[in-house]
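Structure request: glycogenin glucosyltransferase, Aplysia californica.
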Amino acid sequence: MGEGREQNEAFVTLATNDTYALGCLVLGSSLRRVGTTRQLAVMVTSGVSQSMRQQLGGLFNQVVEVNVLDSSDTCNLELLGRPDLSVTFTKFHCWRLTQYQKCVFMDADTLVVQNVDELFDREELSAAPDAGWPDCFNSGVFVYVPSEQTYRNLLSFAVTGGSFDGGDQGLLNLYFNKWATEDIGKHLPFTFNVVSQAFYSYLPAFKQFYDNIKVVHFIGAVKPWHHAYNTASRTVTQLPGTGHSQQFLQMWWNIFMDSVQPNLDPQLYESSVVSQNLSCSGIAGDLANMSLERSGEDGAMRDDRERKLQWEQGQADYMGVDRFDNIKARLDEKIAQPTPSGSGKAPEDQPPPPSE
Ligand code: UDP
Ligand code: MN
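Returned structure:
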């Protein structure tokens, strides 16, 4: 029985780009570290590079390419008209992994700190309460039973009903709408999906139950991989306003630096430079090349990227670095010294100057 379950049950995660794939690598490494006996599967879409797929293949038992529009049923036409639901639908593809009898889906921004194989003793749909609205479950960690029929039901439900939050969590809570009331066995303890901001909402409980925490979930727009890491002191620098616990961020980065970063293909960096892709997908390349940077990881380049991220999220530091005279000075500087033509490089991609 035991051996069968090891083959027939899997942890499943998802990445639609190289940046989220970094999260999958840390999640997968964290599962290996706690000695899971189950299979590891990662779903990827066309947005994940070949090089990154190879990295994933070294860690996961299965790398499955999924495509929203390959579901070969009548929902496809309606789906085409709802591009907003595309990532949501991609997550639902996990129900199609029918080579497994039972699975645990985990978001790419989760981290396992203690073995959670006992989750496979639970039934569909088991999940932990959402910290923001505990009558809903959080869809970052859930136990489910793969089934083409459920997949199709979810699709038609989504197309006809829609989600109340625009994402998979709203949809899944409407679909599995008895979760809150029917069977307490389907309520996973909160320790199986602790939001990284939990200390903020209930510090005494956080301290009391800290040792029981099994899974940490970095919800929100700013993920651990967006933070700067100082290789000299081996510490992560918290970004203001995200609320992620420093301790949890450090855990994520410890695993990233120990198990993931040393194996990252520097080609990720090359491709991000060549394509001048300075948005999120460039992060994977930056991080792949950390060791080559030698020093100054917490220097100008990283500061710049952090700032850009905050800016993109509407968190411009209007009183500080982003105040108008600084922006103007920067513009003036750019106008006065045009970048050499043909270099194809933006400032963020240039190696930082050697420091001390
Ligand atoms: N995801 C992805 N690409 C995206 C957005 C989301 O691959 O652009 C996947 C990834 O597995 C992620 C999950 O969908 O963990 C849910 O999104 P996210 O974790 O960002 O949502 P949150 O937990 O912050 O609500
Ligand atoms: Mn998440």
